[in-house]
Amino acid sequence: MIIVLIRVPIPKSNIYPIKENLSPEEAAEEYEQRLKQLVANNTLKTSPTTGFAKFDLMLVGMGPDGHVASLFCWHFQRFEKQKWVTFITDSPKPPPPRITFTFPLINSASEIALVVVGEEKADAVKVALGEHASYGYPLPVQKVSPEGNLTWFLDNGATSRL
Ligand SMILES: O=C1O[C@H](COP(=O)(O)O)[C@@H](O)[C@H](O)[C@H]1O
After folding, report:
1. Using CA atoms, how far apart are residues 152 and 142, in angstroms rounded to an integer?
2. ipTM of the complex
3. In terms of Cα–Cα distance, which of 72, 62, 108 is closest to 92?
4. How far is the CA of 37 from the centre of ligand 1 (A)?
5. Which class would CATH give 22-154?
């Protein structure tokens, strides 16, 4: 992400990196408070529907297991309803400790671009977008539902099983 950000004219002061010297729990709390400050000083809008911060656009990826952000299938964080930012210490994909936006925050966005590249993600894409495909449980990616448009950007590998 840093590689992307240094190529676009975003002022450094508009980039909010995760504080890596804190524990995951502290870092998640600190990040949530920073977002709330941005709402308080009108830098970020609030969704009138949910009361969570409302980003104009979120760029979201998906793992081969259908996880988005760091919201994984068999982890309770995907069901968080109150917090804006949460943490995980046993992510199945390295690194184990991570912090992540929660679904209520993600889904308060105006627009989401879901960018999925690679054949290893084709099964999860089929479950999310194909007819009658299912693993028998909903994948986190199937819970991505912004207040405005959700647009998928897929390469040939990711669509190979549709
Ligand atoms: O762990 C993660 O993986 C997904 C997918 O990553 P990708 O490099 O295969 O596109 C990513 O979207 C997510 O933000 C990250 O936490």
Report:
1. 12
2. 0.93
3. 72
4. 27
5. alpha beta
Q: Where are the domains of the chain?
A: 22-154
Q: Quick one: which atom of ligand 1 is closest to the CA of 60?
A: 12
Q: Rounded to the nearest whole angstrom, what is the distance from the C-alpha of residue 21 to the centroid of ligand 1?
A: 22
Q: Ligand 1 center to residue 48 CA distance, Å?
A: 29
CA distance 64 to 54: 27
pLDDT tens for each residue of 104-124: 999 999 999 999 999 999 999
Q: Against a cut of 0.90, is the pTM above it?
A: yes
* Calpha distance 149→161 (Å, rounded): 24
Task: Calculate mean pLDDT across residues 68-94.
Answer: 97
Q: Are strands 85-88 and 98-101 parallel, antiparallel or unpaired?
A: antiparallel
pLDDT digits (tens, 9 = 90+) for 8-17: 888 888 889 9
Q: In sequence order, what are the residues at sequence separation of 6 or more whose Cβ sits closer than 8 angstroms to the Cβ of residue 125?
A: 62, 116, 154, 158, 159, 161, 162
